[in-house]
Design goal:
There is one protein chain. The chain has helices at about 15-30, 40-45, 50-65, 85-95, 100-105, 105-110, 120-135, 150-165, 210-220, 235-250, 255-260, 265-290, 295-320, and strands at about 5-10, 35-40, 75-80, 140, 175. It is mainly alpha-helical. It folds into two domains: about 5-180 and about 295-320, Rossmann fold (3-Layer(aba) Sandwich), CATH 3.40.50; about 200-285, Tyrosyl-Transfer RNA Synthetase. It has a three-stranded parallel β-sheet. A two-stranded parallel sheet has the order 4-5. Helix 1 links the parallel strand 1 (about 5-10) and strand 2 (about 35-40). The radius of gyration is 21 Å and the shape is globular. The structure holds tryptophanyl-5'AMP. Tryptophanyl-5'AMP binds next to strand 1, helix 1 and helix 7.
């Protein structure tokens, strides 16, 4: 049995990209492997947060985790800040990382907008992420494509520490899906679907009502040649719709193209609205039941206890190998 770890930031509602790139994999893996899924609230404070909203969003994401199908009997589900070893290991890894490699991280470059003085938390973000992963002796990290560089850094840090201090960490691998690893924005299919895009119609959030889903999909940017074909370079909008269709329905893209041969984009979009509404409705129903329940908090507390057992054992080993403590 392999150990799986992944995390999601509690910033706002999750969108279809988060679902298809990450959460769908989380659910698939829990039947085969030992899975640990985290809500990474400490990553969220790398940019300013309203404290009340942050707490509420943490529970929102936990409820979404369960609503998409995570089973707390199979998977450990917990909140990052409730296991202090994440911060502890992050410091140890900080002392083994270099400013050069951290300043090459594309997400840091985007978020710091090239300013000379950016928040230190944004700079250290990938090291905390590496700590999350290495703390659980993780073999597999299911994530979207945008996290590839962070996983590479995690591997580099693990190998570096193992070479210097003796075998301390398991070296993890990223797991990326074929369809869904990079869901693009509906209004601009050359950039990824993201929580921070100010245009609401650029994304589909998991809790959107059917009329909002319809508006976003029907107004999605396509092209003017009217042929339903998969060609990311020349037809990024249609290709994105086909990828989403494929990821939600399980049908290969080629079959969808064959099915819609001779049809216009309107037909494809209408079918995609239906598939999306059908996929999200049961998730929303479960979410509405789980979100206000005390059971949700109890599941997270139990998750903290189970995660702590693993985290404490790893930190003990790290301290021994580094000569920390008495
Ligand atoms: P976050 O919260 O931005 O996103 C959560 C997950 O969703 C994936 N994702 C996407 N996948 C496909 N298409 C998209 N448009 C899209 N947008 C987001 C992300 O790749 C991610 O898997 N740094 C992480 C959180 C994190 C983490 C970790 C992940 C912290 N520690 C340890 C794994 C292991 C992040 O910001 O994800």
């Amino acid at each position: 049995m392999k150990r799986v770890f992944s995390g999601v930031q509690p910033t706002g509602n999750l969108h279809l990209g988060n679902y298809l790139g990450a959460l769908k994999q989380f659910v698939e893996l829990q039947n085969e492997d030992e899975c640990v899924y985290c809500i990474v609230d400490m990553h969220s404070i790398t940019v300013p947060q309203d404290p009340k909203e942050l707490k509420a969003h943490t529970l929102d994401i936990a409820a979404l985790y369960l609503a998409v199908g995570l089973d707390p009997k199979k998977s450990i589900v917990f909140v990052q800040s409730t296991v202090p070893q994440h911060a502890e290991l992050s410091w140890v890894l900080t002392c083994n990382s270099y400013t050069g490699e951290l300043s090459r991280m594309t997400q840091y470059k985007q978020k710091s907008h090239g300013q000379e003085s950016a928040p230190t938390g944004l700079f250290m973000y990938p090291v905390l992420m590496a700590a999350d992963i290495l703390l659980y002796d993780t073999d597999i990290v299911p994530v979207g494509n945008d996290q590839k560089q962070h996983i590479e850094l995690t591997r580099d840090l693990a190998i570096r520490v193992n070479n210097k201090y003796g075998k301390t960490f398991v070296v993890p691998d990223g797991r990326f899906l074929k369809a869904g690893a990079r869901v693009m924005s509906l209004d601009d299919p050359t950039s990824k679907m993201s929580k921070s895009n100010p245009n609401e119609k650029s994304r589909i959030s998991l809790l959107d009502p059917p009329n909002k889903i319809k508006k976003a999909i029907m107004s999605a940017t396509t092209d003017s040649d009217g042929v339903i074909a998969f060609d990311v370079e020349n037809k990024p909008g249609v290709s994105n719709l086909l990828s989403i269709y494929s990821a939600l329905s399980g049908k290969p893209v080629e079959d969808i193209c064959a099915e819609y041969e001779g049809h216009g984009y309107g037909d494809l979009k209408k079918a995609l609205v239906e598939i999306t509404v059908d996929a999200l409705t049961p998730i929303q129903q479960r979410y509405n039941e789980i979100r206000p329940s005390q059971e949700l908090v109890d599941i997270l507390k139990d998750g903290t206890e189970r995660a702590s057992v693993i985290a404490e054992a790893t930190m003990k080993r790290v301290k021994e190998n580094f000569g920390l403590g008495l």
